[in-house]
Amino acid sequence: MSLPVQQVDAPLVEGLICAPDLIFDKASFNEELTSALAGQTTPGDIRTVAVNLLRGRQKEARARIAAAFAEHPFDARPMTRAYTYLTDQLVTSALYVAREVLHPKPNPTASEHLAVIAVGGYGRGEMAPFSDVDLLFLTPYKITAWAESVIESMLYILWDLKLKVGHASRTVKECLRLGADDFTIRTAMLEQRYLAGDRALAETLAQRLRTDLFAGSEREFIEAKLAERESRHIKQGQRYVVEPNVKEGKGGLRDLQSLYWIAKYVHNVRDVADLVNLGVFTEDELRGFAAAEDFLWAVRGHLHLLSKRASEQLTFDMQVQVADAMGYEDTRGRRAVEVFMQHYFLHATEVGDLTRIFLTKLEADHVKAEPILERIFRRRPRVKANYMVVNNRIAIKDDTVFLSDKLNLLRLFEEALRTGMLIHPDAMRLIKSNLHLIDDEVRTAPEARRIFFDLLLKHGNPERALRRMNELGVLSAFVPEFEPIVAMMQFNMYHSYTVDEHIIQCIKNLAQIERGELEEDLPVASSILKRGVDRKVLYTALLIHDIGKGRSEDHSILGAQMARKIAPRLGLNKADTDTVEWLVRYHLLMSDMAQKRDIADPRTVRDFAKAVQTVKRLDLLCVLTVCDIRGVGPNTWNNWKAVLIRALYRQTQRALETGLEDLNRENRGTEAKRALREALSDWPRKELQAETARHYDPYWQALHVTAHVVFAKMLRDVKDGEILIDLHPDEDRDATRACFVMADHPGIFARLAGALALVGANVVDARSYTTKDGMVTDAYWIQDADGNPYDAARLPRLRQMIEKTLRGEVVARDALKSRDKVKKRERAFKVPTHITFDNEGSEIYTIIEVDTRDRPGLLYDLARTLATANVYIANAVIATYGEQVVDTFYVKDMFGLKYYATSKQRTLEKKLRQAIDDGVERARE
How far is residue 15's CA from residue 294's CA, in Å, rounded to a whole number? Predict the structure, then answer.
């Protein structure tokens, strides 16, 4: 096999983003340096003069490169070459000052020679604005005092220029010895480029590396690079994450660089374009490689310039700035940053595809042979006639025969699921280049429908087939409406995945429930599937529930309209199509009802039951809702949401089976009082009668008997002027229940909300009731910042803060000013404020729903505003979606009436909006 040729190159001058002389005019610099050094004798003064001159040139050059890049924001290659060229000039100028001015040696001995070589990314000529400068100082023998002095002086100059220099001083022998033991060093030297000094010495190193180190070690190098890649992906995350690392993340620049390193090591190429001639890549694949590389380098360049440092993480705040720098604009229904990030993920996916193709090609030539006993005894999976097994992957025997039947483009995925094997990249490549064969004829063919639904319903792991079909473009070809949501990012903190990946995660969750893996976590959804539902309808609805995203219209309405076309095309009959359409249209209904409304109010359950109409629909919607929430992100589902969904499901199921007339406050109140009497059976009859008589009806309908028992005991024990607090971790709900009993006075709800905000407690539900004898019984369910029950160890401080706030020793409004902040990386999110008034959703209360940007003191601000306006808050339901929150208040006016008058509603809305705006301003400060 031919060996890699290590090129010894001069500094780069071609293809820069602006003219070389505008970056660094060497001739004029030398004249200026000569003039400035006249009369300077001390090394310190000479270095200061040189550094000042270089710093001035460096500042001007960086400004010119940045300006040119801002004008041409996608010109990544010229940008990286320009920074490389500037660095070359700074390094060679520093060497000139160190070697010719500070430590001149007119007649050096054989050992007093030095070559300066660029290695790593700098050697490759790829530099972002704040990339490291990796240098190798090469000497023929053990380093001399002269060489040591030159190197030291040179490094001081470069450090004074604020360059981040990685350096090593070695002989040729040391390079070979260290490179043999360390693949990082070997990789760096693979990309060496001569800068200045002894050229013959640099050429000797290149020759010796070629013959003494790289020869015959291809397999070893490949295995090391693949292991590095694997560990990097484990550290950064296997999936494409919403705040990606441009350099180290999956589908990032390091993946492309690893591919290039291996290609250079194995195939003796200087450019990835040479891999086309070797048959590794097609012309189309090469174009994809170049486009992805240019895009990622452009992103990295803007990221460095905007953050003014070597930042590689594309955090939420930087995504907005980079999108703006690259000229992206808002489109209908989508922000510029979302369009930019979709392009990012499409390029990252392309990098993943290309890497997989390349590595499998290598595998055929360089994979380690299996031990002979394994080859003899391992049972090979049997594949169907059109296929064969190559390196434990399913491959296609004859491309022409395969393509003669268009349905084979779907059958391949079925065979892969059936055998449990991965698909060979050659087969993937064939599929990807023939997607045009999946036309309307295929989409409506009964056999194609059968294959597609078998992939979803038959093999038990549909997410594997869907993910590979999505990556290769087959899913979008078969369901064209899917294409716009591929790699579509939703710019918020709630969704951890792109829309297409979210859908695949939802399908994965459904398959896990069906396999019985989540029975303990999801008893209701598991029991529904055990009883049996129409799986085809459920999988279809889940697959397309978010297909309408990314437009200006409501995605549920648009998705339902699209479902009317997609479902029949997939072979569903009219009745099933109607059910799929309804599920897509109302896929958020159960989640919204459970999280944004008071499900203890019979009216909530009655309205939901009327919308659902049948237990069959309720079952399907419940499972879809659970999968949808769990598919948002790894930590989105919790016990609080589980309890709400289960309670709404069970109450609605009972109402649909026994009749809606059973859903009334009187029935609930009677049952609650009976439960309390049973729980307090040891109490004297007179005391029990007093307790059941002292509360108004809403108290009995909304709280569980456990809370009724706690309040009964607190009310029995409370003394005049006393504040009683009971804090109880409610593990079943992932929240701590805080019960308060005290004499009633105005604004108590707001003061409690303020006290809880001051100790970092997030309120997820709150109930406020007044007894007939003037006492307040308030119950709050609170969580810590991570969505867990408030830690028992922190409860004493919580109690202390609440007592101080209620006694007036701490004024929440003042104390919150320093804490009510929005983190820097979260400031880029835009959440418009929507305030609605609903007089139909409850029999006795007006429901005020405030949908806005979340922050620590928001609930306190809203509650205080309502209290100042003499609004009585009966209860509050808080639903958080990342940076967005929906605070729902059940309220009456001071006379116990609903807010029917539009003028009163507008006045209240204006005050609430003002409170939100004031809080946002405070958070910014």
Answer: 14
